[in-house]
Amino acid sequence: MKFKDWESKYQEIIKDMGYDRSMDEHAAELLSEMLYLTEPTRLAQVDRLEALVQGKEILVCGNAPSLRAELEDVDLSGYCIIAADGATVHLLDAGFVPQIIVTDLDGAVDPEIEASHRGAVIVVHAHGDNIEVVRTTIPHLYNIIGSTQATPLENVYNFGGFTDGDRCVFLAKEFNGASVTLIGFDFDDDAVTPIKARKLDWARRLIDVALG
Q1: Measuring CA to CA, which of 15, 26, 42, 124 is 20 to 30 A from 114?
Q2: pLDDT-derived band at 1, boundaries 50, 70, 90
Q3: Closest CA to 17 of 165, 191, 197, 188
Q4: Taking the complete model, does pTM exceed 0.90, yes or no?
Q5: How far apart are CA 191 and CA 165, in angstroms?
Q6: Count of the separate structural domains present in the chain
């Protein structure tokens, strides 16, 4: 997705959620600087995402409580698996390393570090609220690609999307996955906080945009 096509939606999101664009941009700049200082062997290139996704059946795994049970009902072997953040631990427990992890590092980072060491490409998302965890976690990761929801930089990309889950879907569409199947998503979970409920509402709306 071209940023000019995403920017108006981004402006709606930050207005609704009360976020500060300048902080998102600051976080992206910090991530960019860290990636420039990271050994090239620990980075992944965007063409690797394309190779993993293009023409493949894509399974996007969210981190709803239903995910563990849903994984038992799906033959994962035929998919390129994209995990949204905390879904990673459930996939590892099931014996699968996702090909791609999309994360802002607000869940358990140790499984994501493990998966990156085992070959998963980890698309690390920087925003105004996660600067410190980005700073402390990047040195432990492999196969890193940087992302932002604000203005993209030379080495920090914006494929579209806001939450980890919908950013997985935007990524799958950006690199021309043949189909996108969702598991582990519960947009109407009444056990979440009001802020999380608003994020889930945005995720549902944005996934409709991406798949529409």
Answers
A1: 26
A2: confident
A3: 197
A4: yes
A5: 18
A6: 1
Which residues have a Cβ under 8 Å from the Cβ of 174 and sit 6 or more positions away?
A: 1, 159, 160
pLDDT of residue 62: 97
Each residue of 9-30: pLDDT tens digit?
999 999 999 999 999 999 999 9
* CA dist., res. 182 & res. 168, Å (int): 10
The secondary structure of 63-95 as a DSSP string is -STTHHHHHTTS-GGGSEEEEETTHHHHHHHTT
* Nearest-10 Cα torsion for 57, 62, 64, 70: 20
Contact 130, 104 (CB under 8 A): yes
Query: What distance in Å separates the CA atoms of residue 212 and residue 210, rounded to the nearest whole number?
Result: 6
- Residue 2, classified by CB atoms within 10 Å of its CB into exposed (0-12), middle (13-18) or buried (19+), is exposed
CA distance 13 to 6: 11
Domain boundaries, position 11:
3-211
Return the exposure string of 148-177: e unless at least 16 CB atoms fall within 10 Å of the residue's CB, then b. bbbebbebbbbbbbbbbbbbbbbbbbbbeb
Taking only the tens place, the pLDDT of each residue in 168-190 is: 999 999 999 999 999 999 999 98
CA 121 – CA 130 distance, rounded (Å): 20
Which of 76, 112, 117 is CA-nearest to residue 95?
Answer: 76
